[in-house]
From TrEMBL:
<dbReference type="InterPro" id="IPR036086">
    <property type="entry name" value="ParB/Sulfiredoxin_sf"/>
</dbReference>
<protein>
    <submittedName>
        <fullName>Chromosome partitioning protein ParB</fullName>
    </submittedName>
</protein>
Length: 139
């Protein structure tokens, strides 16, 4: 399906210069037709990107209004909602907002992967505590 890029909400804080360059090179070739659709989750009146931030950003740079997308069937809705909230807190609410968050590959890996590890641990504890509280309330 085609989704308007303006309806997409990021769930990651950074883009990699290297990944973006690779996508740009692919975009300039005839192989752009073979690029996988991005993965999304429905959330309110927008769609959370679960995979494909670099592809969405490149599509926007290339002047496209829409991008191919498919719904993410792997679950993790709650964690992606928390990722989207973390992005909102950092003033990242659209694909274009990632413009000032493009990092060299080594810095991207260090910042993004370290942040994800810590965030995922905290989020897992939070979600478990919420589930325990709900379970106790339903007894």
């Amino acid at each position: 399906m085609k989704i308007k890029i303006t309806d997409l909400h990021p769930t990651q804080l950074y883009l990699s210069e290297k990944k973006l360059h690779d996508i740009q090179m692919l975009d300039q070739s005839a192989e752009i037709i073979n690029v996988d659709p991005i993965s999304i989750l429905a959330f309110g009146n927008c769609f959370l990107i679960t995979d494909g931030h670099h592809r969405a950003y490149q599509a926007l740079l290339a002047g496209r209004d829409t991008i191919s997308a498919e719904f993410d069937k792997d679950g993790g809705d709650e964690i992606y909602h928390l990722y989207a909230q973390a992005c909102e807190e950092r003033k990242i609410s659209s694909v274009m907002d990632l413009k000032h968050h493009i990092l060299p590959q080594d810095e991207y890996e260090a910042k993004w992967y370290n942040w994800c590890d810590g965030f995922n641990q905290a989020a897992t504890l939070l979600l478990k505590r919420k589930a325990d509280e709900t379970d106790k309330a339903n007894r």
